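Help needed: design a sequence for this.
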């Protein structure tokens, strides 16, 4: 019930509360408001903690990651950044993170609050735009004012009467704008309230700053009280004289009501704590003194609240065995443990009872406390009496499992029991036929890798005994001599003083067949993708040729006609010459644009081979950036088919684009080489590099596309990079293989 009340409280707040360990690899808690802001379910975030960083805007992602990393070092942050939701919507987030430290100052946890400030950013942006555009474009101002989803008003500076009101203002205040224009604050609101508005307006007119009023109360039509968050700024003429006052107000009534509900929820939470059946105490981890306790804890221990306030941990635990209590408490304080079981507690009359204790670290008024929840487990003996029934249930599960289950004695390594599924899987007629066999007795002499089954089985058994678990794939031999493959899980178990292993065996023959089918489908998909790429490249080449042949010729003819006009009328109509000159300039730009489009769609150098195409790309890179590009052709490749040339060129193009956008490099090298079997392409730079282990989480589709292009022509792409040491992209593609070509009708 307490957890349910807490969730009700969290759902009533628009902000997102979060908590995670310093390493940032998991999420301990995220409030429900996360789903409405990020557009992702909380369960998905728990499973993929990196989603928050991945959803950050690419321009903000590095800054967000750096802030989280610094938080683990104890550096709090307060940042604003953008996220891209799964539906494509862009939102602004205000995120504040705080490091939680233990008594020694070590960071033991992190927490924070995230807020959706998209509307605030929209308001600030629109406010700036309105201030800049007001004097030059009344039409634009009207469009902004009428469509902005918050109240916008303009007052004359001379008498502070309303001169402009938008639709949102009408809806918020409940008045038509015709009833507002030409009147002032005193015509609608109580004098004390109106005087406050007027005083704030005159303060804004006297300054050059935007005045932000975080909360102001206003009585709208009908007598309802609402709360506004308002920004005001003076609009000035060319001489700097204030002529108008622009105001933008956002209705925050619902937020105020939510905060009120939060306060009410806190009161309800206090009632829940006082009415809880479990004992709840608040402990000072530095002095081990109790700061508070609920009635259930008082009843449980026999102390009054006043008496508990004077007690510490030593007073409620027996001296015998207190060392274990102290050890457990230290783990709770450090955050390394949250549950302790079978802890003895001493009542005020000296009697002893046992409890399970759950803990949580909290901050109250800037001071760290430990909340302890004590649950009386006197009834545990009853649970112990039911242990035999649980053992029986386990036996039923063992016997009726759909997997083959068997136990293995240590150190004889003989099977001591097996369920019915085991006998079916190994083609044994009776349990007696299987008992006393050893793992290598139901295996071929050697495994597929050539290792003796007896040696490999002993290695796996030893690993299971040392680590507790060992899973592996194994080839078995049934008692009738047939072979099958299976997944095996060895689990170390101990019952009293007896140590044994439980083996779980699952036949994966069918799974292997499905895996082969899946690989075939994957290859088919890759071939289809390669066919699509080939068709697209052919279409780009066709479009480039059409632009060059048709549009280029038309533009050239047009330029010749304009030049002829200039020759014919230069002496007769001098006033026409500037216009003709401008027309020639525009036509020249159009001709150049058509050439640029042609080169970008399908560079003509591509038809001459990979080396000329690389030289053209080198020239383009040098002209568009400050990166020094060097080309080395160790051995020029022979004439190769178009598919190979296009693949190499597109991979090279993607590599150089990545270097220009992300590497911050000053120079790069391109190397082309070949032998009688392969053609090699190598692109290296001296840029910042990156951590290759982060590639899967970042989902770099550019790098993935390079690899897929190479796979489509039976080649491969290798990417080697380290932070600060640059990046090397190596491409190996076989020269003589049948590759996907475009279809005849493409």
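Sure. Designed sequence:
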């Amino acid at each position: 019930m307490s957890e349910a009340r807490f969730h009700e409280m969290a759902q009533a707040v628009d902000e997102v509360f979060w908590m995670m360990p310093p390493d940032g690899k998991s999420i301990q808690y995220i409030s429900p408001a996360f789903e409405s802001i990020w557009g992702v379910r909380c369960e998905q975030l728990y499973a993929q903690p990196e989603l928050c960083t991945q959803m950050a805007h690419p321009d903000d992602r590095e800054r967000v990651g750096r802030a989280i990393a610094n938080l683990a070092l104890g550096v709090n942050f307060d940042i604003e950044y953008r996220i891209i939701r799964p539906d494509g919507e862009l939102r602004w987030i205000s995120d504040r993170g705080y490091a939680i430290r233990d008594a020694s100052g070590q960071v033991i946890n992190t927490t924070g609050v995230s807020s959706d400030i998209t509307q605030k950013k929209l308001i600030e942006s629109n406010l700036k735009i309105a201030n800049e555009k007001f004097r030059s474009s009344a039409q634009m101002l009207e469009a902004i004012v009428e469509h902005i989803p918050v109240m916008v008003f303009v007052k004359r500076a001379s008498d502070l009467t309303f001169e402009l009101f938008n639709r949102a203002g009408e809806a918020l205040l409940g008045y038509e704008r015709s009833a507002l224009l030409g009147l002032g604050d005193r015509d609608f609101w109580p004098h004390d309230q109106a005087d406050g508005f007027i005083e704030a307006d005159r303060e804004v007119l006297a300054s050059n700053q935007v005045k932000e009023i975080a909360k102001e109360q206003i009585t709208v039509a009908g007598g309802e009280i609402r709360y506004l968050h308002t920004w005001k700024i003076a609009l000035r003429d060319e001489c700097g004289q204030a002529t108008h006052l622009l105001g933008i107000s956002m209705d925050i009534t619902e937020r105020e009501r939510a905060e009120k509900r939060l306060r009410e929820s806190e009161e309800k939470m206090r009632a829940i704590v006082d009415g809880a059946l479990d004992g709840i105490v608040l402990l000072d981890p530095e002095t081990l003194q109790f700061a508070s306790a609920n009635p259930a804890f008082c009843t449980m221990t026999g102390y009054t609240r006043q008496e508990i306030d004077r007690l510490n941990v030593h007073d409620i635990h027996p001296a015998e065995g207190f060392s274990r209590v102290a050890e457990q408490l230290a783990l709770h304080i450090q955050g390394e443990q949250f549950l302790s079981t079978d802890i003895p507690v001493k009542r005020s009359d000296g009697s002893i009872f046992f409890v399970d204790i759950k803990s949580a670290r909290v901050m109250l008024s800037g001071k760290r406390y430990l909340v302890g929840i004590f649950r009386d487990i006197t009834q545990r003996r009853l649970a112990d009496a039911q242990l035999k029934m649980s053992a029986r249930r386990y036996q039923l599960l063992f016997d009726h499992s759909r997997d083959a289950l068997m136990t293995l004695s240590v150190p004889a390594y003989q099977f001591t029991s097996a369920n019915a599924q085991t006998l079916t899987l190994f083609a044994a007629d009776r349990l007696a036929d299987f008992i006393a066999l050893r793992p290598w007795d139901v295996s071929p002499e050697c495994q597929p890798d050539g290792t003796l089954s007896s040696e490999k089985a002993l290695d796996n058994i030893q690993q299971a005994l040392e680590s507790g678990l060992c899973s592996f794939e194994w080839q078995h031999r049934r008692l009738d001599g047939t072979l099958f493959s299976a997944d095996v899980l060895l689990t170390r178990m101990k019952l009293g003083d007896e140590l044994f292993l439980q083996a779980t065996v699952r036949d994966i023959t069918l799974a292997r067949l499905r895996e082969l089918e899946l690989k075939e489908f994957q290859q088919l998909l890759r071939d289809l993708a390669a066919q699509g790429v080939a068709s697209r490249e052919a279409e780009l080449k066709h479009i480039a040729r059409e632009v060059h042949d048709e549009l280029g010729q038309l533009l050239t003819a047009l330029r010749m006609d304009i030049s002829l006009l200039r020759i014919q009328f230069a002496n007769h109509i001098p006033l026409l010459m500037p216009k003709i000159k401008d027309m020639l300039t525009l036509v020249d730009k159009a001709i150049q644009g058509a050439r640029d489009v042609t080169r970008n769609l399908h560079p003509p150098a591509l038809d001459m081979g990979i080396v000329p195409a690389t030289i053209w790309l080198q020239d383009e890179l040098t002209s568009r950036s400050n990166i020094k590009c060097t080309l080395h052709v160790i051995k020029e490749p022979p004439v190769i088919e178009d598919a190979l040339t296009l693949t190499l060129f597109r991979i090279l193009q993607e590599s150089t684009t990545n270097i220009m956008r992300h590497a911050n490099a000053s120079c790069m090298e391109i190397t082309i080489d070949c032998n009688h079997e392969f053609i090699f392409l190598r692109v290296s730079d001296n840029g910042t590099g990156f951590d290759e282990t982060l590639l899967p989480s970042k989902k770099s589709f550019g790098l993935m596309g390079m690899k897929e292009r190479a796979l489509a022509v039976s080649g491969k792409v290798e990417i080697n990079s380290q932070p600060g040491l640059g990046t090397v992209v190596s491409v190996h593609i076989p020269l003589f293989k049948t590759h996907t070509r475009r279809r005849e009708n493409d």
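Residues 739-746 have pLDDT under 50 and may be disordered.
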